[in-house]
Write a structure and sequence with these properties.
It is built from five helices and nine strands; from the N terminus they run ααββαβαββββββα. By secondary structure, the chain is an alpha+beta fold. The strands form two sheets. It has a seven-stranded antiparallel β-sheet. The radius of gyration is 26 Å and the shape is globular.
């Protein structure tokens, strides 16, 4: 039986048009996954909260993104990198002790989305804290000694942990950040950002090794 009521016909047509529009919108979203995200989605996807197993604070993420000149980063490491590097440090200390012939225990390299060179993070077992420091470095009071300049930052910490053996005493660990994209001139902002990222990696390493009192590193980064 035909429906000759014009009001009912108009309502039915409206529902049909709405259903068709919804269907087309759904298809469009499936066929165009690369369409621009909302501001909140972009912020959420801008950077991972972890780097090679290191939990990054909001400030450290921003510092790292600025250093690599991008709104996102990728790395050569994985979530296991921190634990693997910690095990390598313990093994190296057990075999050769401090001053392990300058051996470098790499954590990972961080890249921006378009850069071919990145930020290198590594650890060492130095024989001692340097008594002579290049005037190009700015010295900061963090750990046993913190040094930073645009191309490089170093942070020395004393770790007392059973991981190195019950009779090991304290073990001096040196964290290094090498910034291959650093400006040639001195830049206080880059110095601070280098140290912020290195602090995050060093604190994570202290926790991973079970260093007593987190090797006297502060719970939050602030420029000394």
């Amino acid at each position: 039986m035909l429906n000759n009521n014009p009001v009912r016909r108009l309502a039915a047509a409206t529902v049909a048009v709405a259903a068709l529009a919804a269907s087309l919108a759904a298809c469009g979203s499936e066929e165009n996954p690369g369409r621009p995200q909302t501001t909140e989605q972009s912020k959420a996807a801008a950077a991972s909260p972890t780097l090679c197993g290191v939990q990054l604070s909001t400030g450290a993420r921003k510092a790292l993104l600025h250093l690599v000149g991008s709104n996102e980063f990728e790395s050569s490491g994985s979530q296991d990198s921190l634990g693997d590097t910690a095990k390598a440090l313990v093994s190296g200390y057990g075999e050769k002790g401090a001053d392990d012939y300058g051996k470098e225990y790499d954590l990972c390299t961080v890249y921006g989305s378009t850069a071919s060179m990145g930020i290198d993070l590594s650890f060492h077992l130095p024989e001692g804290i340097p008594t002579s420091v290049s005037p190009k470095f700015k010295q900061y009071e963090m750990g046993e000694l913190a040094l930073s300049r645009p191309p490089k930052a170093s942070l020395y910490i004393n770790c007392s942990s059973d991981a190195f053996g019950s009779d090991s005493g304290t073990v001096l660990i040196q964290g290094d950040l090498t910034n291959t994209q650093a400006p040639s001139r001195d830049d206080a902002t880059v110095r601070k950002e280098n140290l912020n990222v290195l602090y995050s990696a060093s604190l994570a390493m202290a926790k991973e090794l079970g260093c007593e009192g987190d090797a006297d590193l502060p719970g939050r980064f602030s420029l000394p």
